[in-house]
Amino acid sequence: MITVEKAAELTGHSNPIFALTLSQKPGILFTGGNDKGVVEWSLKTNSFIKVMFPVMASVYAIHCPEDHPLMFTGVRSGEVLVFDFNQQKLLAGLRHHRKPVFDIKSVKSKKSYLLLRRMAAYLYGISILYNWCTT
């Protein structure tokens, strides 16, 4: 039998949380949901750091790939927001999806990103996606 104990509680969201992911930076967690923003938390102090950026729809997916200083955020509107940690700003995102994006993953062996939405999956090459988001 597995014993589970609550180690900490991160309070601050006022609505349901649908997505969380660890940062590339140790000890940092990002969360998002119906609060219409992506929130940064310290796992060392179990405390709120800041709202990274506001979003116009519910956040369903957050992904921080290990080998790129980016955060991808999938929202209910179908948009995928791309935050650049080096520049500390949102880049041009993917705006051609019209249905919610439920998950985003890196596929290192293919140097690609996989976006999942209802009844469909899309694979984007990393260099193509990055160049598209930064122009």
Read across the widest sheet, the strand sequence of neighbours is: 1-2-3-4
How many DSSP E strands? 11
Radius of gyration: 15 Å
Spans of at least 5 consecutive residues with low confidence:
none
The percent range for strand residues is over 45%
Mean pLDDT: 83
- Please give the alpha-carbon distance between the first and last residues: 53 Å
Helix content: under 10%
Largest sheet: 4 strands, antiparallel
Bulk shape: globular
Structural class comes to mainly beta
Helical segment count: 1
> Helix-strand pattern, N to C?
EEEEEEEEEEEH
Account of the 3D structure:
The chain contains one helix and eleven strands. The protein has one helix spanning 126-134; strands at residues 17-22, 28-33, 37-42, 47-54, 59-63, 70-75, 80-84, 89-94, 101-107, 112-117, 120-125. The N and C termini lie far apart (53 Å). By secondary structure, it is mainly beta. The longest helix is centred in the C-terminal third of the chain and has 9 residues, at 126-134. The strands form three sheets. A four-stranded antiparallel beta sheet has the order 1-2-3-4, with no helix packed on it. Strands 5-6-7-8 form a four-stranded antiparallel beta sheet, with helices on one face. Strands 9-10-11 form a three-stranded antiparallel beta sheet. The chain is 7% helix and 50% strand. β6 (70-75) and β7 (80-84) form a beta hairpin.
